[in-house]
Every structure is written in structure tokens, then in C-alpha cells.
């Protein structure tokens, strides 16, 4: 039936039964609704898959495989002079400690009768992480009384063994892998049965420094979290006062002229400049021109300050604008100066809005990665920065950059670490946004 | 004197000034504070500001300018012969700075007296190991000229530091005396300190202008350096991107531009329909309850940092597309591809498009909807034939803003799009974008004299111009549209 025919057909029949055209229009209506629901469904699904993928990959990073074994801290090896002198103890390097660990583990395997055919000494040595010796050494140096005793320790296992327990490494993959042998995995199975090896919560993932490419099991986020915290301090200290001052000027004092227009246009354009351009600015101005050190939190903080400033200014201006003019008029009417009006009345009333905007700006800055790559925050940093203010000039990492760094490494164990780091980052962001929402709920006032 | 100590002294002086100003004002009033023009606190404030602000400004400017002057003086001491084969003056100058720093540490530990350092020079061999002992490791032995330059550098820096301390404290004291002397009962201290604060406000509001200026200046200056080493026409019109460490690179922007536009196009192709339809559904159809759940959920997508999206592209979307689409159809074998980056970037843009469109749809006057319903149109007909045409300019503006966001996005393409610069139509192949190349040319060991590094600044300039242009057009369109219904 053609369209013309539809139009020319005289209406016959009941109003209660739909004619063909109405039916078609109603179908189109339903179809349109379904499109809308589908769009929302796609957006929600994307969110769910995104979060599920990160959580699924990352949660296991918070649990790490340890070998529970008695370690004999042989006094003959660790303290040859027998005087427990701190300087003498420091002379024993991690090599000495790793031999101790190897002996203890070999002993344990013998005691338990865990002989695996073809298990070489080097296989046993590689069960233990290269970092474990350093950890035990630090523990002994902090507490020299342990020397000479046999203590039961949780010793960090190698990353591949950890991968085996988490399903990343299998017997088949071990045959092709030069870093782990099938015998080691069999030994692991045996030890699992006797409860000698197992996973437990991994504090050092949050507190320890980054580790080299070959020891993913020891890599932690400590330096990155500290570096990010330093940068947030710089951003807060600089961006909040400058942003509030600029907004007060633009809202309360500025005359309408070309200069003010220029400032306004600048602020709205800066908000849309790609973040990487701020990185180029930081590299050219702060590092090459002003000679500030690379990968220092101070440079990162300055760059992020310039980036966050438009966000803070825009939200502060909105908060100041929301204070009703009658309050200003009343203050001016009883003889307050303009500045007194602002400081005594407008600012306190706008404070919740300003704080909310600042926290949201900080949260944005915390997740920003691209500009930090350019100012050298990708460098491998193992040392914790000193306390501020000197520490602001020490090299440090940052949380999002650490994620990027780990994804660039070959060992798949680092993917797990990177996802775990993302979870830490998201927890921080969630906490900040929750505080912002709470502040808004508690102090929001409608006039 | 260290900078921290100097700042503490200045702030301490200012605090003393505050207390003194209040005392002085009270005594000037002759016991009756009502006879003062301003409250005593304002007198204190004006003294504080006059002591602290000029001195702090001086310190800030001095710290910026001093290194530049000293560098230019000292680098005159280094002749061409001192610059090793394949090195550059900048590298020698950084050695100079490090040696000077090492000398400072040695002098600070009491290892050498000032006279000993001044007379040093002959026994350069011993110096290297001593510097190594305080953590300044040098790759080669120090040239005599370089050592002289370091001594000069150190001496000038130290003199500069002393001069800075003296003049800053003198300035603070002058401000102190001047502002204290001005205090009388009739002195309009409130007006003075309020004027001062207002000046500070103005200065703060100029930071935005300064930032823009800094961005433009750094991009343009370094781009000019680049174009001196590499012809503009090749950069703009060459179709190959092939940087070489040994020179002779092809640095044409087209492959990068193509990748950027392709990825952005895929992203918009995904984000615009989804974002627009969800905005329409939320503002026209959804019940209040659905709205109150879905809207914040979509906003969560906007709050997730881009590094998370990048990781998502790298470990989930990329391998998925490779295993289920690229390899079965023989279209490619890499997990990073235009489609990976585009899809994930599209997810990132959904909340952006949807919240902008939501605002715009809500700005269409209710009377137009009512008119359409009154003529018997269904809801979807009203949306399609009345609301969307009315909102079209605003939606175009929103899409342009989203496009500018997509072009400037970095982390998703760094982790999802790949690093191979090519001009290809296959969306399952790895391609690269302007932002990826800025990151890869500027991270790691960079030498600022080579065109391979400097090209990043020219790319940054192009990026800046593109996004700024898109934004200006978009804001203009949106503003025009808003005026239409106000």
C-alpha cells in the first residue's frame, strides 16, 4: 500500500482499533524509546565492564605469596666479630642473607621430606624472591637481638611462584619459561599441601618502593603515593588562594573592560587546553628555563596547579555568585567597606561551594598522567623523598604515572600490579568525591 | 643564607611589624582608639603587607633571573675546544653546575677551605674522586676550563645569594620603617591595606593570562628552533614520519594527523549517538527514579582518570578486539589499534556529550513541546522534528567540544592506539597520534638540540591551535544558540 493510499482512505471502523498509520507511528515511538534505553544500557555496561576489568585484574595484587619457614639467623655469618656492632652488621650484604635463606629452605625441604626428582639447588634458590634477603636484612639490622636465633618468617616468594598460585603461570607455560621450572611448581604444590606456602595480605604493595623489572613481587606504591601527596599539597597551597583571589576579583571588583574580558576568555580557554600541553609548558618553563629538577613533585605540583586553576576559579565564581546580593547590600548599608563585605560575609557563605570545587579539582589533578610523563616523573625512583619542604625537590613517582610505568614492563605480573595501583587511585578519588558530596549536602544553602 | 631561612626572616619581620603597627596606632590614638580613622588591626595589616610583599617579590624575581645571568657569563669561559665530540654546550654547562654543587658539599663538610678551592686547578685528577665521594659522579676527567667555570659559577652563585639576602632584608626593613613612620591617628590604614589586597587579587587573576602566555611562548619559541633545523614545508606536507637517531629523519605531520583524526572520528561515532540518545531519554522519557540512578552513574564515567581508560584499552578491549575481530578476519594482529583507542575514548566521551546535550535539550522552551503535542505529534516525533532541530546548533557545539577533547586526549591513545605512524584505512591496525608522538619524543633521555626532540614542540603547537580553534568555534556556536532562546 502506498502512502497516498493511506491518506485517501476514509476512516472507517472503530476509534478503538488503531489504523495502520497510527500503528506505525506507535511502533516508531516504541522503537525510539528502545534506542534511548539501549544507549543508556550501553553506557551502564561500559561502566560495569570497565570497573569489573580493573577490579578483576587488580584485587589479587593486594595478596601476595609468602613462604612460611624457620630461618636460622646464623651468628657466624651475620656477625663474625660477635659484638653486635651496627656498622659491622651492615657489612654483611644481601648476598650473605640470601645464602642463609637458601640454607634454611633446603633444610626445611629435607626435614619435610619433600624431595622432588631433579630439583636443583638453583631451583630452590629461585623459589625465594631476590628482594626477600634485603627485607630480612633490614629486619635484622633494626633488631640485632634476632641474630643467633631461629625465627619463623614469612619470606616473599618469587613472582612466578606467586603467579602460579594466582593462575597466571601453569605447568604448560612453565615448560617454555626460563624463569621458572616445572619442578619448582611441583614443589610449590607439595608445600601448599603442608601449609608451608600461601597468600596473605600484602602491606608492602602499599608501603614499599618500586622494584626492578625482574622482581614484580616486591614492587610497591609507597614512593608513588608519597609523590602524589606532595603534589597535592603544592596544588592545594597554590591553587586554592590564587583561585579564590582571582575569582573574588572577577566577581566582586573587576570593572567591565577589555582586560577583564581577556582574563575571562583566557580562563575558559585554559580549561579546554589538552593536559599534555601543560606538560610541555612545565618542561619548557619550569625545567629548561627556571632550572628546577626533573621528576620532582614541586614541578608536577606547579604544572597541576596551572591545570586545576580554571576548575577552581569556575566553581568558586559560581559559589560567590550564588550568595544573594541582599547580603552584600545589607553589609554595605551599615557601613562596611567592599573588602569587609567580601571577607566577612560573602566568603564565609561561599566557603562550602569553594571547598567542594577545590576537592573536585584536586581529584582531577590526582588522576592526571600525561603532563607528568613529560616532566620526567616516569623515571625509576626507589628512594623515598625527604620530608617537605626539601622533599618537594627530590625525585619521586606519582600514582597514575606508576600505573603507566608498570604497564610498559614485560612481565605480566606487572599488569596485576598496575590494576591494583588503579584500585588504590580510585579509592583515593572516591574518598575525595565522597567528602565533596558530604560537604555539599551538609552546608548547601538555598536562598 | 639558605632561601628557607631568608623567607622565615622576612615573614618574622612582617609579623613583628604587624604587632608594632598595632601598638604604634594605639599610642598614636592617645588611649582613645575611637579617634583612629582605621581600626588598629588595619594599621598592623598595612605594615605586614609593606614588609612582606615587596621583599618576597624580590626574592622570587631574583631566583628566576640570577641563574640566567650567571649561565650567560659562565658559558663565555668555555671555549669550543672544551666541548667533547658529539656533546653540546648544554651538557658541559650541566657538568659545570654539578661540579659547583659538589664543591659546595665538600666545602660544607669542611673538606676544603675557600682558599684551597680558589688555588686548586693543578691537581684535577684527585678532584674527580673527591667529587665522586660526595655523590657527584662524572663521566670523564674535568677540563681545566670547565673547572675554572665551575669555580666561577660557584663563586657567582654564592655572591648572588649573599646579595639577595642583604637586599631582601634591606627592602623588608625599609618597608617596615616606612610604613611604621606613616602611622598617625588620621592615617587611612584600612584604605591602604584594602588597596594592597586588591592589587594582590588583580595579580592572581592575571595568572591565567600568564599561563596562556607561557604556553604560547614556550611552544612558539621551541617550534621556531625546530623550524630552523627542519624545513616547515617538509613538516607540513611530507607524508612520512620516520625519526632517526643519526639525523636524516622524515618528520611529516600527516601520518600523525591522520591517526589523530581517525581515532577521534571512531570515538565520536560511538560517543555521539550513545551520549545523545541517553540525554534525550533521560530528559524526555525517564522517570525521576531512573534519572536519579543513571545520571550519577554516567557522571562516574566522567570522573574516572584517563589512565584507567588507558589500562582498560590495554588489557581488556585491545586483546578482545584482536582475538575476536582482527585475527579471525585477517585484518591485523596487534592488540593496539585505532578501533581499540577509539572505542575506549568513546566511552570516556559519553558523559561529556550526554551532559552537554542534556543542558541544551532542557534549554528548548516548553512552549515548543506543548505546541507540538497539541498538534497531535507523538513524543518521538516531537523530539525528532521539533526539539532536535531547535537544539541542533547547541548539539553541534557540544560535538565540537567533544572532538577537541578527543584530539587532545593522551593516555588512552598512548596505551591503546600503538606507535606505528602510517596512513591506512584499516581500523584494526595500530596507528599513532600527535599526542603519542609528543610523549615518545619528549620522554627518556632527550637532547634539546636535535630536531627529533624539538619536533614535539611543533606538534604541541599544532595540537594547541587545533583544539583552541575547535573550542572557540564551539563556544561561539553555543553562545549564539543560547541567546536565541533567552
TrEMBL record, chain A:
Keyword Transmembrane (UniProt): yes
Localization per Swiss-Prot or TrEMBL: Cell inner membrane; Cell membrane
Membrane topology qualifier: Multi-pass membrane protein
Keywords: Cell membrane, Membrane, Transmembrane, Transmembrane helix, Transport
Main location: membrane
The keyword Plastid is assigned to this record: no
Similarity field: Belongs to the binding-protein-dependent transport system permease family. CysTW subfamily.
Name recorded for this polypeptide: Phosphate transport system permease protein PstA
Automatic annotation (TrEMBL), chain B:
Topology term for the membrane: Multi-pass membrane protein
Primary subcellular site in the record, as a coarse category: membrane
All copies of domain ABC transmembrane type-1, residue ranges: 257-474
Pfam family, one: DUF3708
Superkingdom, taxonomy of origin: Bacteria
SUPFAM superfamilies in UniProt: MetI-like (SSF161098)
Subcellular location as annotated: Cell inner membrane; Cell membrane
The UniProt record lists the keyword Transit peptide: no
Keywords: Cell inner membrane, Cell membrane, Membrane, Phosphate transport, Transmembrane, Transmembrane helix, Transport
Keyword Protease in record: no
Sequence intervals crossing the membrane: 45-65, 162-180, 200-220, 227-244, 256-280, 300-321, 341-365, 386-407, 454-478
NCBIfam families: phosphate_pstC
Similarity field: Belongs to the binding-protein-dependent transport system permease family. CysTW subfamily.
Role, per record: Part of the binding-protein-dependent transport system for phosphate; probably responsible for the translocation of the substrate across the membrane.
Protein name: Phosphate transport system permease protein
Primary gene name: pstC
Amino acid at each position: 500500500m502506498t502512502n497516498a493510499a493511506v491518506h485517501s482512505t476514509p476512516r472507517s471502523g472503530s476509534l478503538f482499533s488503531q489504523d495502520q498509520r497510527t500503528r506505525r507511528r506507535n511502533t516508531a515511538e516504541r522503537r525510539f524509546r528502545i534506542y534511548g534505553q539501549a544507549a543508556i544500557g550501553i553506557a551502564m555496561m561500559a561502566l560495569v565492564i570497565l570497573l569489573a576489568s580493573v577490579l578483576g585484574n587488580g584485587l589479587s595484587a593486594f595478596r601476595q605469596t609468602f613462604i612460611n619457614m624457620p630461618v636460622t639467623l646464623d651468628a657466624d655469618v651475620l656477625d663474625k666479630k660477635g659484638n653486635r656492632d651496627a656498622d659491622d652488621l651492615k657489612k654483611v650484604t644481601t648476598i650473605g642473607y640470601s645464602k642463609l635463606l637458601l640454607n634454611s629452605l633446603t633444610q626445611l625441604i629435607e626435614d619435610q621430606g619433600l624431595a622432588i626428582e631433579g630439583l636443583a639447588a638453583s631451583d630452590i634458590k629461585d623459589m625465594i624472591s631476590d628482594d626477600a634477603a634485603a627485607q630480612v636484612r633490614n629486619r635484622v639490622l633494626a633488631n640485632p637481638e634476632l641474630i643467633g636465633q631461629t625465627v619463623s618468617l614469612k619470606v616473599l616468594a618469587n613472582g612466578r611462584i606467586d603467579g602460579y598460585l594466582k593462575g597466571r603461570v601453569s605447568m604448560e607455560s612453565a615448560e617454555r619459561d626460563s624463569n621458572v621450572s616445572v619442578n619448582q611448581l611441583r614443589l610449590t604444590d607439595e608445600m601448599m599441601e603442608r601449609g608451608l606456602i600461601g597468600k596473605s595480605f600484602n602491606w608492602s604493595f602499599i608501603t614499599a618502593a618500586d622494584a626492578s623489572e625482574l622482581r614484580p613481587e616486591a614492587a610497591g606504591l609507597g614512593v608513588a603515593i608519597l609523590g602524589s601527596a606532595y603534589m597535592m599539597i603544592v596544588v592545594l597551597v597554590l591553587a586554592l588562594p590564587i583561585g579564590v583571589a582571582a575569582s573574588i576579583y572577577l566577581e566582586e571588583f573587576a570593572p567591565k573592560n577589555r582586560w577583564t574580558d581577556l582574563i575571562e576568555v583566557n580562563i575558559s580557554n585554559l580549561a579546554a587546553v589538552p593536559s599534555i600541553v601543560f606538560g610541555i609548558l612545565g618542561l619548557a618553563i619550569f625545567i629548561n628555563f627556571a632550572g628546577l629538577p626533573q621528576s620532582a613533585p614541586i614541578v608536577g605540583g606547579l604544572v597541576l596547579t596551572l591545570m586545576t586553576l580554571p576548575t577552581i576559579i569556575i566553581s568558586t565564581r559560581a559559589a560567590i555568585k550564588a550568595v544573594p546580593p541582599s547580603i552584600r547590600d545589607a553589609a554595605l548599608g551599615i557601613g562596611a567597606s567592599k573588602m569587609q563585605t567580601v571577607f566577612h560575609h560573602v566568603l564565609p557563605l561561599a566557603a562550602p561551594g569553594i571547598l567542594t570545587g577545590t576537592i573536585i579539582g584536586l581529584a582531577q589533578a590526582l588522576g592526571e598522567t600525561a603532563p607528568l610523563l613529560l616532566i620526567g616523573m616516569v623515571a625509576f625512583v626507589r628512594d623515598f623523598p625527604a620530608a617537605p619542604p626539601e622533599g618537594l625537590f627530590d625525585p619521586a613517582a606519582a600514582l597514575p604515572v606508576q600505573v603507566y610505568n608498570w604497564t610498559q614492563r614485560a612481565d605480566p605480573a606487572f599488569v596485576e600490579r598496575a590494576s591494583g595501583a588503579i584500585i588504590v587511585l580510585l579509592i583515593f578519588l572516591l574518598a575525595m568525591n565522597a567528602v565533596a558530596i558530604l560537604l555539599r549536602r551538609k552546608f548547601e544553602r538555598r536562598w | 643564607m639558605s632561601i628557607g631561612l631568608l623567607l622565615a626572616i622576612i615573614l618574622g619581620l612582617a609579623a613583628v611589624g604587624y604587632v608594632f603597627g598595632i601598638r604604634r596606632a594605639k599610642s598614636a590614638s592617645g588611649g582613645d582608639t575611637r579617634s583612629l580613622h582605621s581600626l588598629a588591626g588595619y594599621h598592623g595589616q598595612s605594615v605586614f603587607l609593606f614588609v612582606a610583599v615587596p621583599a618576597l617579590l624580590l626574592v622570587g624575581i631574583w631566583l628566576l633571573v640570577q641563574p640566567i645571568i650567571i649561565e650567560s657569563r659562565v658559558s663565555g669561559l668555555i671555549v669550543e675546544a672544551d666541548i667533547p665530540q658529539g656533546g653540546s654546550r648544554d651538557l658541559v654547562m650541566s657538568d659545570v653546575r654539578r661540579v659547583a654543587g659538589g664543591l659546595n658539599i665538600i666545602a660544607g663538610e669542611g673538606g676544603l677551605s675557600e682558599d684551597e678551592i680558589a688555588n686548586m686547578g693543578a691537581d684535577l685528577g684527585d678532584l674527580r674522586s673527591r667529587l665522586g665521594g660526595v655523590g657527584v659522579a662524572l663521566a670523564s676527567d674535568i677540563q681545566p676550563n670547565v673547572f675554572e667555570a665551575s669555580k666561577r659559577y660557584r663563586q657567582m652563585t654564592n655572591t648572588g645569594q649573599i646579595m639577595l639576602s642583604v637586599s631582601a632584608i634591606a627592602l623588608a626593613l625599609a618597608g617596615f620603617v616606612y610604613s611604621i613612620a606613616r602611622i598617625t591617628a588620621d592615617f587611612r590604614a584600612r584604605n591602604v591595606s584594602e588597596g594592597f589586597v586588591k592589587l594582590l587579587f588583580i595579580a592572581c587573576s592575571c595568572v591565567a593570562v600568564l599561563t596562556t602566555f607561557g604556553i604560547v611562548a614556550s611552544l612558539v619559541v621551541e617550534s621556531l628552533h625546530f623550524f630552523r633545523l627542519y624545513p616547515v614545508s617538509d613538516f607540513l606536507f611530507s607524508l612520512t614520519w620516520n625519526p632517526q637517531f643519526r639525523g636524516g629523519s622524515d618528520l611529516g605531520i600527516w601520518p600523525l594527523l591522520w591517526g589523530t583524526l581517525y581515532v577521534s572520528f571512531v570515538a565520536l561515532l560511538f560517543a555521539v549517538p550513545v551520549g545523545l540518545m541517553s540525554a534525550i531519554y533521560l530528559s524526555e522519557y525517564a522517570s525521576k527514579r531512573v534519572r536519579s540512578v543513571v545520571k550519577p552513574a554516567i557522571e562516574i564515567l566522567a570522573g574516572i582518570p584517563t589512565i584507567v581508560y588507558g589500562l582498560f584499552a590495554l588489557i581488556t578491549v585491545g586483546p578482545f578486539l584482536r582475538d575476536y575481530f582482527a585475527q579471525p578476519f585477517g585484518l591485523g594482529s596487534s592488540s593496539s589499534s585505532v578501533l581499540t583507542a577509539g572505542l575506549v575514548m568513546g566511552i570516556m566521551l559519553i558523559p561529556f556529550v550526554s551532559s552537554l546535550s542534556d543542558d541544551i535539550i532542557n534549554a528548548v522552551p516548553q512552549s515548543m513541546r506543548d505546541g507540538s503535542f497539541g498538534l497531535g505529534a507523538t513524543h518521538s516525533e516531537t523530539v525528532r522534528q521539533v526539539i532536535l532541530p531547535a537544539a541542533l546548533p547547541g548539539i553541534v557545539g557540544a560535538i565540537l567540544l567533544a572532538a577537541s577533547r578527543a584530539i587532545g586526549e593522551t593516555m588512552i591513545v598512548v596505551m591503546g592506539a600503538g606507535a606505528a605512524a602510517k596512513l591506512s584505512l584499516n581500523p584494526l591496525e595500530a596507528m599513532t597520534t600527535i599526542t603519542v608522538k609528543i610523549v615518545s619524543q619528549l620522554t627518556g633521555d632527550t637532547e634539546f638540540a636535535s630536531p627529533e626532540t624539538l619536533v614535539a614542540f611543533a606538534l604541541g603547537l599544532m595540537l594547541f591551535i587545533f583544539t583552541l580553534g575547535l573550542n572557540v568555534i564551539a563556544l561561539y556556536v553555543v553562545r549564539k544558540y543560547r541567546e536565541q532562546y533567552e
